[in-house]
User: Fold this.
Amino acid sequence: MTSVTSAVPEALAAGLVAADRATLIHPTLPAHRTDRTMLVSGSGSRVRDAAGREYLDASAVLGVCQVGHGREELAQAAAEQMTRLEYFHTWGPLSNDRAVELATRITGLAPDGLNRVYYTSGGAEGNEIALRMARLYHHRRGESGRTWVLSRRMAYHGIGYGSGGVSGFPVYHEGFGPSLPDVEFLTPPHPYRQELFDGADVTDFCLAELRGTIERIGPERIAAMIGEPVMGGGGAVVPPADYWPRVAELLRSYGILLISDEVVTAYGRTGHWFAAEHFGVTPDIMVTAKGITSGYLPHGAVLTTDEVAATVTGDLGFPVGYTYSGHPTACAVGLANIDIIEREGLLGNATAVGDYLGRRLAGLTDLPVVGEVRRLGLLMAVELTADRATRRPLPHGTSEVADALRVQAGIILRTNPYALVINPPLIFTREDADELADGLRSVLSRTDAEGHVR
Ligand SMILES: Cc1ncc(COP(=O)(O)O)c(C=O)c1O
Assistant:
């Protein structure tokens, strides 16, 4: 790994912040916020800002950077490929060696039956393809009426009009006009939110709702159900062990395809190559991105079965393609990234350090604002609450806590309105875990029931 570079001069850093305010549109940043954290370098689980301050990256950026920052090996892989064949598309009969090598590699790691790969440049693109594949699959089989897609509230699948249309937070729908039609949202299997289940068993409740929904809409009108194995944006919502097996069985009985969105969970995040292994369920279509290259280049891969692939290609071909599908440099980086994950035993580390960090975080539940700690492997959440008895969210949300963690404790992590989402690089150490747990305790012990940090 490279060492972190020194700080940029103060005047230059101030100029960067001013230019940022004048030019960049940041996702999710309100206009009144004038502060910026200007990152300039990174190594391992740390990044550094323009003033030379170091931060612990407890988010792996956005659940992406499995192998950590500053890996020369990945830069080398990109440079070598760029000087040989930087880029070509894979439309029609054109192909390239790297795209084939990576497809062979990931189908070898994936659950049996997922033998075919369609490349994208990210997660939302992958879900667009998955939705198109599902509808086209039924259309080509003579069931054109199957257009409906089932999703869950609190799901996050990206911000395309299809992927955003099946995302279950109101913010992706309000103000944007009509999005994907024929979408139905179901209850998320979120055991902490007991009030959703009327005292019933979580899986029994969700299965009854799923069956009722299918019967109401009509199975002959439903193409697919899409879901994250563990809801990442929802706050590491780990379903009961029997949820996915029972959902998959029910969908199969109605001829409805299962799309598993493994954009966050794939490539080691849960201690397995894919969360499908943990739950023992092989979907019809599996969407991956993020960790495939650890974010060194944007990339993604949609995996599916021979049967779905044969149907959506067929004599007419699969009619939709991205400019960058099968990008050889992204694929070369993906291969080198998987080499690192294998060579350094990062799946095992995700399990071992995940267990350790999980124990440390569980210790935070003595704090009044901590409602629950959840996790699978190195995908974790600390749910915050104003009142542990009612599980009411903090009225001011989690953003002040996230800011305090960054500014006061030097820790970067992601939040949703209810929870701190923790998914560090898979190279995280016990020492990193201790630093994170101590920083969280320091800030959360000063957080009041409104969500303000003293
Ligand atoms: C589960 C899941 N699906 C899809 C996406 C969208 O991926 P992208 O931002 O690469 O389009 C994300 C992004 O966080 C995600 O968490």
